[in-house]
Specification:
heterodimer, A: FAD/NAD(P)-binding domain, Fumarate Reductase Iron-sulfur Protein, Chain B, domain 2, 3 domains, five-stranded parallel beta sheet, 34% helix, 19% strand, B: 432 residues, alpha/beta, Alpha-Beta Plaits, 2 domains, eight-stranded parallel β-barrel, 13 helices, globular, binds flavin-adenine dinucleotide, binds flavin mononucleotide, binds iron/sulfur cluster
């Protein structure tokens, strides 16, 4: 028996194994040395370059590109990694069209920016064939707890270790990496890149990784405050928003959860997907869930977003990526109910109108067939220990990640700083580490 | 399209584009294909004296300077003159010339610096039907160690002497090819003229080491761990060649001596520039070696279009820029310009700012929002900003009209005045 995109309900192996493998292969393959030289040559080496300002980690982009152009990709990588230790992952996952490349003067001039992301990957790929290049300073005797081994926690831990502090990382999941390992679209980080990157950066030394240890379950914040000289919280957003559609007979699933399972599935031909998939939401998670459903062989995949297309947080580039993969995008509709029956499930949407009085639900509705409804309407913070101030659903911080409690810093998605992006998490983890270092070495904390 | 037919010292060709004496003209197979592709003429790869031919290295012969996307900007070679037997070359020359009577075919020669050798080679080529000879006094490597090539070209007395022999023993037009490896290019040109040369051609290659292998610690190209200097050519040498051509064209002693312009000609525009500075035709090597014979088709169409657009003939073009080549002391010091930045074209890269602020005159302001503006009261009009700006015509130089005040100096723009009459010049002649 073989399945196809037309097989009703949920089914695995809707496409031949080679088609699935091709779909999930590196979606932007690496540049070869000649391509890199040509791409690097397009950089104008701008004065006080706008791309640098547009990079949350402030990588010296013109310098690293010039280092590639002069055939020293190792030096280019050192430039990148000294600002952003996860420069390899960021090269793969950053929405460069809204960050560095969006600010490139050649985007203004010709609508064709310098390919900064791909050049960054070129350099970091070279660097990652060798040990991580940073030396650890003499031990300070200080000990820091980092909670969460996502981009924020890893960047923080690496920077603290570099300054000679000892770091213990508590990670609730069995593996480190955070959303790099469990969330990013599979075709952006192929060949177990997230784990390879962690394995490459940890040998700086001084970092103890405690996986399967959750704050609030296995250890309390008070304990950490007592046992360590400082604490960093990089716990991300563990909870998800509820679309308010009830239990919905197993049709409804959270998109982040679906993607996490996908990312951890060795053999993707064993992963079931619906014939008709509906994704609710308008961001990067919605796009990734929709595109990957298509790549698994779903026949019809529709993203439904409650406001107008211009309000979607997924960039034009990402929307194009989705439609290019055969995903349909519908806007101005919000889900009201899921109906199940003999003919298969359907999801019902009410049309909406965005006016001065906010989003209005109209009376008229429509239905879409849906073997699978993936909800991607945002994530939120898990309950936080008492004492920490939470504002707007995120941990309140000031400056470089200082929480309202002395000795506790936070960064990444769990704070309201910056956009919820890998690169922002890295920047915040790094900056918090620098601030903690000043504090630990006798400087002042806020 | 404009008539591109050329008559250079009596040698006729359908266009002024000749292939220079080099690998592209080394043998019949190449030359036939070059003619088929449209080249107006060729100067055959330099022939040596009768007897066992020279040998070349069997390792790499070239060094290269690359620009963006591995574009060849400069080429360096350690190749010698032809390494094929004289009789073979002569037989092929005769056959090709017979089949392409309308194309120019000039034979390049290099033999030892004695009268008998020159007499012998000239009689050997007598009945090939070739249109002329070019004396290779230019190759700067290998042959020069044996007293030929640039070893002759660096001694004006030898140039004059050999040219005289050639004119004495041959009826053919004689072009003397000059080496640029000399302090004043006018001296060898004058010597050639005194010896009776019909024309000079220049430049041959420039002594050079293009690069050093940083693992082997040896110049490139590296032959078994060692390297020798070679001769540099290609787009990079054009500015040097243009200056030398202009020097000969405007010198009182050599004015009117026909010039065949060589050195970095890559497009029709390069050719037009050489001709405007006095070259009667041009010769090409590196562009053909880089892109193949077909490049001549762009040169032909481009030069034709240019002449049509300007509504001038090929002869009108030749030497048209020579009267405007002058000495620094005669430049108008009262001509005042200011840089101006077109804000609509500006892409905000800030290169002009970095250049002017760090290395020039701090005459560009960087305003909020990355707006770059020229400060007229600081701008000395060096035009570095124009040169480093990646957008064509974004920064231009605006001329201040007579009577306006230059905000930098506070002085009014006045009539022509050059250094010879300038008050700061201790040697100034009083204006009459
Ligand atoms: C589907 C999806 C796709 C995305 N795609 C992109 C993309 O293409 N490009 C991009 O830039 N960004 C993308 N993002 C956003 C990006 O992944 C996040 O912004 C980034 O991972 C945030 O890093 P972080 O370290 O703050 O949190 P996380 O990556 O979420 O890491 C937090 C870590 O803390 C652990 N943790 C949580 N609670 C506890 C606890 N109590 N005790 C111990 N450990 C705990 C978690 O297990 C996790 O490992 C995507 C996000 C999602 C959901
Ligand atoms: C605008 C300009 C002015 C120069 N003026 C001088 C000078 O006054 N004295 C001098 O010795 N060299 C002068 N040079 C030559 C430089 O010092 C240097 O030798 C030359 O530019 C080659 O080096 P580069 O091309 O690697 O920069 C000048 C160069 C430039 C571009
Ligand atoms: S012309 Fe020279 S001095 Fe004037 S603004 Fe440009 S770089 Fe500065």
């Amino acid at each position: 028996m073989t399945n196809s995109p037309l097989t009703p309900g949920l089914a695995a192996a809707r496409l031949p194994a080679d088609a699935i493998a091709a779909g999930f292969s590196d979606h932007e393959p690496p540049l070869d040395p000649h391509e890199a030289a040509v791409a690097a040559d397009r950089c104008y080496f701008c004065y006080d370059a706008p791309c640098v300002d547009a990079c949350p980690t402030g990588i010296d982009i013109p310098l690293f590109i010039r280092q590639i152009a002069t055939d020293t990709p190792e030096a280019a990588a050192a430039t990148i990694l000294s600002s952003n230790i996860l420069g390899g992952m960021c090269a793969r996952v950053c929405p460069t069209e809204t960050l560095c490349e969006g600010a490139c003067v050649r985007e203004t001039a010709e609508g064709k920016p310098v390919e900064i992301g791909r050049l960054q990957r070129y350099a970091t790929d070279v660097a990652m064939t060798a040990p991580q290049p940073f030396a650890r300073a003499a031990a300070t005797g200080k000990h820091v707890a980092v909670v969460g081994a996502g981009p924020a926690g890893l960047a923080c831990a690496h920077r603290l270790a570099m300054h000679g502090h000892d770091v213990t990382v508590y990670e609730a999941r069995p593996k480190p990496g955070g959303l790099n390992e469990f969330g990013i679209a599979a075709y952006k980080a192929t060949d177990a890149f997230a784990q390879r990157e962690v394995d490459w950066l940890l040998p700086i030394g001084g970092i103890t990784m405690e996986c399967g240890k959750a704050l609030g379950r296995d250890v309390t914040l008070t304990q950490l405050q007592d046992d360590f000289d400082a604490v960093f919280l990089g716990v991300g957003l563990g909870g998800v928003n509820d679309p308010g559609l009830g239990a919905a007979n197993g049709v409804l699933r959270d998109a982040v959860d679906f993607i996490a399972e996908l990312r951890q599935t060795e053999d993707l031909t064993s992963l079931p997907v619906g014939r008709d998939v509906v994704v609710i939401g308008g961001g990067m998670t919605a796009v990734d869930a929709a595109v990957q459903s298509r790549l698994l062989g779903a026949e019809n995949v529709t993203i439904v977003y409650r406001r107008g297309q211009e309000a979607m947080s997924a960039s034009d580039h990402e929307q194009d990526h989705a439609t290019g993969a055969g995903v349909r995008i519908r806007t101005n509709a919000t889900p009201v109910a899921i109906h199940t029956g003999d003919q298969g499930a359907e999801i019902e949407f009410a049309y909406t109108e965005d006016g001065p009085g906010g989003l209005q639900k109209l009376d008229e509705t429509f239905r879409l067939r849906a073997d699978q409804v993936l909800s991607a309407i945002g994530q939120r913070l898990h309950a936080m220990p008492d004492g920490l101030v939470v504002e707007g659903g995120k941990i309140a911080v000031t400056g470089p990640g200082r929480s309202t409690v002395a000795g506790i810093w936070a960064g990444g998605d769990c704070t309201a700083e910056g956009e919820d992006l890998t690169v922002s998490a890295v920047a915040q983890g790094r900056d918090a580490a620098e601030d903690m270092h000043t504090y630990l070495m006798g400087g002042k904390n806020g | 399209m404009a008539d591109l037919r050329s008559n250079f010292v009596g040698i006729k060709s359908p266009n002024p584009f000749w292939l220079a004496s080099a690998p592209p003209t080394d043998k019949e197979y190449n030359v036939r294909r070059a003619y088929e592709a449209g080249w107006g003429g060729v100067v055959w790869k330099t022939l040596g004296a009768e007897g066992p031919p020279v040998v070349n290295v069997n390792g790499p012969r070239y060094g290269v300077i690359h620009g963006a996307d591995r574009r060849v900007l400069g080429l360096n070679n350690i190749e010698l003159i032809t390494d094929r037997p004289l009789e073979v070359n002569l037989r092929e020359i005769k056959q090709v010339k017979r089949d392409y009577p309308d194309r120019a075919l000039v034979i390049s020669l290099m033999v030892p610096c004695d009268e008998d050798s020159w007499k012998a080679i000239l009689s050997a080529i007598e009945d090939t039907g070739a249109d002329g000879v070019e004396l290779n006094f230019g190759c700067p490597h290998g042959m020069s160690e044996r007293g030929m090539g640039s070893a002759v070209g660096q001694v004006p007395e030898y140039i004059e002497m050999v040219t005289r022999w050639v004119k004495q023993y041959s009826r053919m037009p004689c072009i003397v090819k000059l080496t640029p490896n000399i302090a004043d290019i006018r001296k060898p040109a004058e010597a050639a003229k005194r010896g009776g040369a019909d024309a000079v051609s220049l430049i041959n290659t420039i002594n050079s080491i293009t690069s050093v292998d940083l693992d082997l610690f040896a110049p490139e190209p590296t032959i078994d761990g060692k390297g020798a200097h070679g001769g540099y050519c290609g787009p990079a040498v054009k500015p040097i060649a243009l200056n030398m051509v202009a020097e000969i064209a405007r010198s009182a002693e050599t004015r009117g001596l026909p010039i065949s312009g060589i050195g970095g000609v890559t497009t029709w525009r390069d050719a037009a520039e050489f001709m405007a500075l006095g070259a009667g035709n041009v010769q090409v090597c590196t562009a053909a070696m880089t892109y193949g014979f077909k490049v001549v088709q762009e040169m032909i169409s481009g030069l034709g279009q240019y002449l049509d657009d300007k509504d001038i003939t090929l002869n009108d073009l030749i030497g048209r820029a020579v009267p405007n080549v002058t000495d620094w002391q005669y430049l108008n010091l009262n001509y005042v310009t200011k840089a101006q930045i077109d804000q609509d074209l500006c892409i905000k890269c800030g290169r002009c700012y970095a250049a002017c602020e760090d290395t020039s005159h701090q005459a560009i302001a960087m305003l909020p929002g990355r707006v770059f503006e020229v400060k007229d009261d600081e701008c000395v009009a060096c035009n570095l900003c124009v040169d480093v700006c990646p957008v064509e015509d974004c920064i231009t130089m605006r001329e201040l009209p007579l009577g306006d005040t230059d905000p930098r100096t506070g002085q009014k723009v006045v009539e022509f005045g050059n250094w010879t009459t300038h008050p700061n010049n201790p040697m100034a002649k009083a204006a009459e």
